[in-house]
Fold this sequence. Notes:
- By secondary structure, this protein is mainly beta.
- It is built from one helix and 22 strands.
- A hairpin with a 4-residue loop joins strand 8 and strand 9.
- The longest helix is centred in the first third of the chain and has 27 residues, at 2-28.
- The radius of gyration is 23 Å and the shape is elongated.
Amino acid sequence: MKHLHVIVFVVFVMISSCTLDKTDYEAELNVETTEYIEFEEVTAITSGDYKISLEALNGTLYKGYNEVHLTISNTETDESLENSEVTFLPIMTDANGNKSSCPHAYQLSYDATENYYVGYAVFTSESDSTVDWQLYIDFTNNDETQSVNETIYIEEQTNLNLNMTAFTGNDDAQYFIALVAPQSPSVAQNDLVAGIYRYNPPTSEAGTFPDPTQYSYSVVNNHTLLLDPRMPEPSMGNHSSPNNEDLTQENDGLYYGVVNYTMTGNWTLNFIFNDENGQTIKGTEVSTEFTPGVEGERGELHIDILF
């Protein structure tokens, strides 16, 4: 009985310490996330007889995944341009004048129900004094191609639930994983959505700038993203959660799974990225041991979030 009392006391001290540490941590890093559902205009470009309006959630382009809507109207006739061939190419210029792009939908598709062109861009850097983003848009009307470009500003993504990562795989290809949802998780099983993309190195010399063959990216198809979510803070002891589901691709090209957050706080989504044959492109398993007082291990491929 004496030994039992000692054990109960030790467990009580551990639980109390964990709870206090966790409470202090949440108070220090308490961040409210707003779930944006409305698309608003980011910028409007007027060129000749045409007005091009670019919309995104909250009227803002962020580092990470952005769905974009584009409308084109003739200012003389006040008619919308439908079913045109519309291309969308973001170009980043750094302080040394080097130019690059980011994962994006080059050919935009037309949504006849909503009357806009739809695509996406996964911006890899925020705009600042050393980073400039320019958007190049081409469209056709009456067999004539119109070309416009506009400076765009990319904001820092403060919602870590929409974080992203870029990495080189074991196949020497450059990949990007960007979280799309949930914007505002809950203490529950959450649908986890991500986009996975690959850079396509050019196979020929550059033509007239901006040559899209020099800035080509594609959606990664039929791969699997194995998921192991953990709370790495020492007070949380590296614990995980049950009923998570790995991410697999669905018809819209995005990858869907389930992440079960059992409490608010700092979580790490550890991934193992496998190709269609089950071969690992990137990622390592992490320890499953409960390690109170010791920071949990992060895998080779991971994304940190906080809610």
